[in-house]
Design goal:
- The chain is about 35% helix and about 20% strand.
- It is of the alpha+beta class.
- The chain has 2 domains: about 15-70 and about 170-235, CofE-like (60s Ribosomal Protein L30, Chain: A, 2-Layer Sandwich); about 70-160, no CATH class.
- Helix 4 packs across helix 5 (about 115-125).
- It is globular and about 50 Å long.
- The relative contact order is 0.24.
Length: about 240
């Protein structure tokens, strides 16, 4: 069993979320590859650690990779629009987002050239006025969820970009059915800038997922912990 009893480096074990205090235990897994049963691997690594009422958070990029929605940069053929539009995207230490021609091409493929063009145009008009974030508001959740590697991404995925998971809500619900205990499963896209919930049953579960991940407690780099058990220990 490889459920860690201490948080990842630089993170805290406990967090207050939605009126309660939770402890969060990272689950260490091997590198997940295309066609791997990610949920099955998580359950095998967690053993009998789950308890009724737990919340299991899964990293959306690893879900996507297991579904075959990860792409090696060298295999992505990009066009002129992807190269041009990517110049206007701000890169951050938390991720390159659509700041490369390769990831921008994935966004064009997923969302359509027209939608991405409109998003770029609106962002170009509003950003100088101090109104940021409009590119992703227009481009939508699929564009926002496209991930590229960071400096700490574990090989071989430091050379990969990934799309959003396919049918994330249904994936999370099916994962819940496979756990012997009564556990909620939420698919999360989190970094040091913000949290986006891709797979949740309802708005209440989305709010809980955001609150549990505000400090980006999962580790997809050298930590190798793309899943997290969250356990309520007290009510505020």
């Amino acid at each position: 069993m490889t459920v860690l009893t201490s948080p990842n480096p630089g993170k805290k074990l406990t967090i207050d979320a939605e009126g309660a205090t939770y402890e969060r235990f990272p689950i260490k897994t091997p590198v997940i590859n295309e066609s791997d049963d990610f949920v099955g691997i998580v359950l095998a690594e967690a053993g009998d650690a789950f308890q009724d009422g737990d919340v299991l958070l899964l990293a959306e990029s690893v879900v996507a990779i297991s579904q075959g929605r990860g792409f090696r940069f060298s295999d992505i053929t990009y066009g002129w629009f992807a190269k041009f539009y990517s110049r206007f995207v701000t890169r951050t230490p938390s991720g390159i987002g659509l700041g490369t021609p390769e990831t921008m091409q994935l966004a064009i493929n997923e969302c359509g050239l027209l939608r991405i063009t409109v998003a770029v145009a609106i962002a170009g008009i509003t950003r100088p006025l101090g109104w940021k974030g409009n590119f992703y508001r227009v481009a939508g959740a699929k564009a926002r969820a496209i991930d590229g590697p960071t400096a700490g991404t574990m090989p071989p995925y430091n050379e990969f970009a990934s799309l959003s998971p396919a049918n994330p809500r249904e994936y999370a619900i099916e994962a819940e059915k496979r756990i012997a205990k009564k556990v909620e499963v939420i698919i999360v896209d989190a970094n040091d800038i913000g949290v986006n919930i891709l797979g949740a049953r309802d708005k209440e579960q989305e709010r809980l997922g955001v609150a549990l991940c505000l400090d980006n407690p999962m580790g997809q780099g050298s930590e190798g912990t793309p899943a997290l058990i969250c356990r309520r220990v007290s009510v505020l």
